[in-house]
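Entry type: protein chain
Record version: 2
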Amino acid sequence: MMTTKRERWSSRFYWIGAVMTFSTIALVLLGNTRLVAPVEHTNFPLAWKFAIVAVLAFLAREFCRPASHLREPVSDSRHSLDHIPHEI
């Protein structure tokens, strides 16, 4: 998969996870209202379903992330002691 496609899918999965997370929070807060109570089931609540989708979306984002984001920059240790104001 090309890097730009991977970045797009990563971005889509991120936003799916973010929307599902906010939806889960909203369903928990509004769970006992007349508007939301009819769609909530006591065996397996809708908020839990949204939370599972959010977790899966964030995991899918991590798998779709390009490898360039996972690499750490190589540090040069030759100048690591330059910031110390006195000699050791």
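Comment: The radius of gyration is 22 Å.
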